[in-house]
Design goal:
CATH topology of the largest domain in chain A: Rossmann fold
Number of strands of chain A: 8
Largest interface: A-B, 99 and 99 residues
Structural class of chain A: alpha/beta
Number of domains of chain A: 2
Oligomer: homodimer
Strand content of chain A: 5-15%
Order of helices and strands of chain A: EHEHHEHEHEHEEHEHHHHHH
Strand order of the largest sheet of chain A: 3-2-1-4-5-6-7-8
Chain lengths: 308, 308
């Protein structure tokens, strides 16, 4: 059984642990907080229910593949890959990477779950830069199958190929960025949509409720199984070339109006909060997160059943 | 039984006819092409299969609620609402609206399916501007439940409220724009995402395949049942205010890099076509459209079963 090190025992770490341990990996987990270490299996357990929608596996089997470690050295020794999932702070990540670099074999891949920081910056202080990547999951990684692998200029091709195979063997669908960029692909696509949602709301064209409906009851239903380039292939009889030729004047005209940078002022954020609370209760948040994870698993299951 | 007029018998018209006729409306259809009129029921039949995933209704029942008319007057007389779905050309729409205005009662709502043109422009030549709206569906409207109602400054509140109720009674989920804007909500959100997908591809950060994966295997799974503002409420312990306060430096920084306007040059479109054809066959397009419609219906069914 190959060994995966998990550094950081919060929700992301627990979600990764579930993803790997349910796919025949032995997972070794470290967190510098004793309390987090002691709670870790409970955190995994709380996410396990979502996984049962997708997979027939007992919690005992998962538990038998997870080892909680009291020292960072123990997750490093002979690990195939170490998935760092501590807080999103560059200095802390740089320091933990120095330790991971020191205690692991030279072949071990060092992967950060960062959603935003560049691998060249996270790994700047380590010796073996060729084995350093960002492997950013989509939340939560025990039910969403996606991971985006972002190498730096120093990352070796062998590292990229090996990482891709490891994630695939744990049932993830990895993509490979060809060069590093802040926000990678996922958060850049998400940010572009979010900024336009905010422009439409702030400038008074539609309510938050109506903008949410436009995504979840229209665009999102298609986007659950088709990407933007696949969709453009279906939007005109001649395929993607025909679609872009027909629609480019409209798309470009919109782009010209979509290049303002929303201010996100404190006043505006308060306005968002106020409108939100008229329709969604804060006290209900945990239930909504639970339902989100279940629905993600159900949509994923539906896709798998239909060969997607 | 209330009467709906459908003006234009292409795919959109047929899809609307299916949506209304399966919800206890009597649908009267007109197209100026005899061939289109003669083919209309076959077009409806070809879409009917998708609907059976969602609904237990016979094609005979649907057929009994559809009347093909040889004159535009016949779809107008005593109609509650007329859904215009002819080609996306401003002059042709303006001219057809003159006719619809002339032959219908003053209370009949005149709704255009336009995805881009403004209601103030489409209705500029008619007398009764208070009853003119754009009601833009998401494709295809026999399985996607969404419609965005865009009024002009001249549209009356009564028209907006009445239209909303009509679409709701036919199981659509309507949103109401507060003022008109090109691309409405749906195509503006879609365009913002598409432009960023193209930036990432054109500047060499990721392949079309990998960008498609980021949407369909990550973002889209969530977006199938949650809108952007609902998601932001779940992304930080303190809800949407907390989320935007934490993440606004990152979101704004991305926005600053996302304000270029892709050129969509002929060379670039050819490059897209070439990369696309390496992974998706043109000859397979009809099957992919069929599968898209079925999967939309299946995701919609899953959502309804889960109270979404």
């Amino acid at each position: 059984m190959d060994k995966i090190g998990i550094c950081g025992g919060g929700l992301i770490g627990a979600s990764w642990a579930l993803g790997f341990s349910s796919n025949k990996y032995k997972v070794f987990v470290y967190d510098n907080s004793k309390k987090v270490r002691e709670e870790f299996l409970n955190t995994v357990k709380s996410l396990y229910e979502d996984l049962t929608i997708l997979k027939d596996i007992s919690f005992n089997e998962i538990k038998s593949n997870i080892v909680i470690c009291e020292a960072i050295e123990d997750i490093c020794k002979d690990a195939t890959l170490i998935q760092e999932s501590i807080i999103e702070n560059l200095e802390e990540k740089q320091n933990i990477f120095i330790e991971l670099d020191k205690f692991s074999n030279k072949e071990t891949i060092l992967a950060s779950s960062s959603s935003y920081l560049l691998p060249s910056e996270i790994g700047i202080k380590i010796k073996q830069k060729d084995r350093c990547i960002v492997a950013h999951p989509a939340l939560p990684p025990h039910v969403v199958p996606f991971v985006e692998i972002c190498p730096s200029k120093q990352t070796s091709d062998i590292t990229i190929e090996k990482a891709k195979k490891i994630y695939q063997s744990a049932e993830y669908i990895p993509i490979i960025l060809k060069k590093e960029i802040e926000g990678f692909v996922l958060n850049r696509l998400q940010g572009a949509l979010l900024n336009e949602a905010v422009r439409l709301h702030e400038e008074g064209y539609a309510s938050m409720e109506d903008i949410d409906i436009s995504l979840k009851h229209a665009l999102g239903i298609r986007w659950a199984f088709l990407g933007p380039f696949e969709i453009m292939d279906l939007n005109a009889p001649g395929g993607i070339k025909d679609s872009f030729t027909r629609y480019k004047p409209g798309i470009k005209k919109l782009a010209e109006q979509q290049n303002s940078i929303p201010d996100y002022s404190d006043d505006y954020i308060l306005k968002l909060e106020k409108e939100q609370r008229l329709r969604l209760k804060s006290s209900d948040r945990d239930n909504r997160i639970k339902k989100r994870n279940q629905l993600i698993a159900l949509v994923r299951k539906l896709k798998l059943e239909n060969g997607e």
